[in-house]
Write a structure and sequence with these properties.
- Helix 6 packs antiparallel against helix 7.
- The protein is elongated and about 75 Å long.
- The protein has 383 residues and is an alpha+beta fold.
- It is built from 15 helices and nine strands.
Length: 383
């Protein structure tokens, strides 16, 4: 039986159907300003806005065009990837929680799911973000990220734990909430390992009427093992699911539904992971080693010069380059009408190269106002 996350099913009718209210910067959706500006003037993104009008069409587009999750196209440092172009297109749409759950559990491509997790990380309120992510922190489905194979679970954990994401910065999570999430992920790791062990003994040890030990916590009681009796075994509906169990805790008489990894045979005596304390200790060690990343790969001259320099996007200060992007949007839109964009399934055409002979300069007040009006029209037309 596959150990892919148990929640990847179509049973989403019990989820909220309300529209997700995005938080933070409503102009850039909390995406780095320069990256967001580059997306807006990307010929691929402009074509995406023209032909993609709903979530279903966007899912199809991700399936055929996205083969990596990095913000920039492979081998470049200024052309936005098809992944982030699709992410911004999703941000411009009205997204309900039900629709996002469908994306997160999609079975056709892990990149469809990855775009959904990025949307949750960038745009969703923190509590909702964790609600959407917590059941996938040990999902085993594999995909490619920056040329390396990783699992969906590792990807989700990195979104929660890290602030850097392949050369760009993720929005900050409040410290106390992030520590809570990290502690829960440690506990989920223990449950995940226990589930793999229990798979071999579930028929023998976990049956109706069996007395076992189960994990339980509430607002007044910390997570602990308690004796319980199995009342009912819930059979899995999909191949990636495992059994679930309705149990009654003998000490208090309350009935709860537990996953396979949240139980153990009555003769076991496992300890409970002190997640919060472990997180604090890990943060303490990380703070002590700041600036001592001895494992960091040192780039030589050839390696540092290897990234492709995109024509027209280098030279001058970073601020000048960023400000000039919006000024050149009209030229890019004209070029987009003659370019074919990306061909086949890949990132090569996520943003065709932008060439210009104009020098970077400060924008006038009129140009700034014009840029704001253009962006408002874009959101009004495609959002």
């Amino acid at each position: 039986m596959s150990l892919v996350a148990q929640t990847r099913s179509d049973g989403i009718s019990n989820k909220s159907i309300g529209t997700i209210e995005t938080i933070g910067n409503q102009e850039t959706f909390n995406i780095n300003q320069m990256l967001f500006n580059n997306v807006l003037v990307s010929p691929y993104f402009l074509k995406l806005c023209e032909k993609v009008k709903d979530n279903k069409t966007l899912i199809d587009e991700i399936y055929y065009k996205v083969t990596d999750i990095t913000p920039w196209s492979t081998g470049t440092s200024r052309i936005p990837s098809s992944c982030f172009c699709c992410l911004v297109r999703l941000c411009l749409m009205t997204v309900t929680e039900n629709q996002l759950w469908t994306i997160l559990k999609h079975v056709d491509s892990p990149y469809i799911r990855a775009v959904g997790f990025l949307f949750a990380r960038y745009c969703a309120p923190t509590d909702l973000m964790w609600k959407l992510m917590k059941d996938f922190v040990y999902d085993e489905e594999e995909f490619t990220a920056n040329g390396t194979n990783i699992t969906i679970g590792a990807f989700v954990r990195s979104l929660v734990e890290d602030i850097e994401f392949y050369g760009t910065i993720l929005p900050r999570i409040p410290v106390m909430q992030q520590r809570h999430m990290k502690a829960k992920m440690l506990q989920e790791g223990e449950n995940y390992e226990r589930m793999k062990v229990n798979l071999d003994i579930c028929q023998k040890e976990f049956y109706r009427g069996a007395t076992v030990r189960g994990l339980y916590e509430d607002d007044e009681n910390p997570l602990k093992w308690y004796e319980c009796v199995i009342d009912e075994v819930v059979e899995p509906k999909e191949e990636w699911e495992t059994h679930e169990y309705w149990v009654t805790f003998t000490q208090y008489g309350n009935q709860e539904k537990l996953k396979l990894g949240e139980m153990e045979p009555s003769y076991m005596n496992s300890s409970v992971v002190a997640g919060y304390e472990a997180v604090l200790e890990k943060e303490k060690l990380a703070a002590q080693s700041t600036g001592k990343n001895y494992a960091r790969q040192v780039l030589g001259m050839k390696s540092s010069m290897a990234l492709k320099k995109d024509s027209g996007l280098h030279g001058g200060s970073e601020m000048d380059r960023e400000q000039s992007l919006v000024n050149r949007a009209n030229n890019v839109r004209k070029a987009a009408s003659t370019e074919t964009g990306s061909g086949g399934r890949g990132d090569g055409g996520a943003g065709a190269e932008v060439n210009t002979n104009k020098r970077s300069r400060e924008r006038t007040d009129e140009e700034i106002e014009e840029a704001k009006i253009k962006r408002s029209k874009l959101i009004s037309k495609y959002g």
